[in-house]
Amino acid sequence: MKAIITTPGKQGSVHLGEIAEPSGTGTVQGADGKPAAAVEVEVVEVGVCGTDLEIADEGYGAAPPGGTLLVMGHENLGRVVSAPAGSELQAGQLVVATVRRPCPERCAPCAAGQSDDCLTGNYTERGIKGRDGYMAERYVEAEDYLIPLPGVLGKVAVLMEPSSIVEKGLIQAFTIQRTRFPWEPHQALVCGAGAIGLLAAIFLRLRDLEVTLVAKAAPDSRSARVAAEIGAKLLDADQHPVSGLSRELGNLDIVFEATGVSAVAMAAIAATGHDGVCCLSSVTAGDRALTIDADALNLDMVLGNKLVFGTVNANRKWPGVLEQIISRRVPAEQFQEAFQRRPDDIKTVITFAGA
């Protein structure tokens, strides 16, 4: 069957190739580490994100043990082909598969089903680290890792994985802050207006915060239109650097960083207001060096009583807004187009035979 494959560590190796068909009658590893009956799923769509671009362009990622090739893709939407007897899943049902799998040591978070908080770092991730992904016509998986969806979500279901990153981060931000002191946030800053940034802005607006996005986005861009529709302000990053936004906007209760640029992440920490929280969501796989005024940063963190943490993996108020975040859909045969960024792109999606 067709799959989009790369050789991790080798730039420019992404290609459309043939791999063996999966068997829907065998067993796979379940969440408890024991063999589980396989569910066969045909792929409908797979999103392309910054991590995929880093795998393609910068050699990020790791192939499954014993191999040199990696099937790409982790943001996914599929349709069940077959499920074992007794399964709650039925043929034809839409599903989204989770990305991360537990470490072999079964550390406490992994054993509790929270592999996104793995202590050992030896977890695997489909399409990223040590496990094939979803940019293929079909895959098999344990039911433990499949999330059933109502058909009405079909047009935006591929955004489930990035949405989980954002929602997990915001839930943790609110939970931690409110265990520290009485906290009623009013002002939020989101750095970046890609899919993660816009989803963060949407979820913050749903919590009734004033939201400002700062990004390199033209006033007539798709990102600008989405920001306007949800009632968020969009600032041009070239005219409004993150380092100066606390003076411009006032005390920032929440800063959500989603640019993929480590220098912006450092500026986001500094921009966070007194008693504020900064959530970092960017995976920066490069080797950028940055000079930081460590004394000033430490002093500001301590006297400002700031909280900084990272988030990974893990709504009818504005009908149609989520659909606008998906800027393009391209067939698997033309996958190269999905890896070529256009100025107005937010989220590009690759479609497979199940679409």
What do you see in this structure?
The chain is of the alpha/beta class. It folds into 2 domains: 2-154 and 320-351, Medium-chain alcohol dehydrogenases, catalytic domain (Quinone Oxidoreductase, Chain A, domain 1), CATH 3.90.180.10; 162-310, Rossmann fold. It has helices spanning 50-58, 108-111, 160-180, 195-206, 222-230, 245-249, 262-271, 294-303, 321-325; strands spanning 2-6, 15-18, 27-29, 35-48, 70-71, 75-82, 94-97, 100-101, 124-126, 130-131, 138-142, 146-149, 187-191, 210-215, 233-236, 254-257, 277-280, 307-310, 326-331, 347-351. The strands form 4 sheets. Strands 3, 4, 6, 7, 11, 12, 19 and 20 form an 8-stranded mixed β-sheet that branches. A 6-stranded parallel β-sheet has the order 15-14-13-16-17-18, with helices on both faces. The protein starts with a strand and ends with a strand. 43% of the residues are buried.
